[in-house]
Amino acid sequence: MNLIAELVDLDNLIVKHTSPPATPILRNKIQRILEETEAYVASMTKKDEALAKAEQSGTEKTATIAELATKLEQWQSAPKLKRPGIGGTPPFRSPI
Length: 96
What we know:
Elements: H1 3-17, H2 22-77
Helix pairs in contact: 1-2
């Protein structure tokens, strides 16, 4: 059920089946409710869009973290290279 459509239908019924002074009084009440409902729907739509964007961002960050974790594992399991001068023979020094 679409609440906004129902309120518009109710407004149309008020116009069709009532007469002044009831018509403007009822229409004013319906109009305020309709405006608040439209604002609420717009607000919820914005929140839903923000949530979807945050979820997408979170998914992208999770993928980046997984990729970095894989690279770290590869780096840690790679054979270690020996650097000259460290743990081996000292570098050549000139006697002068």
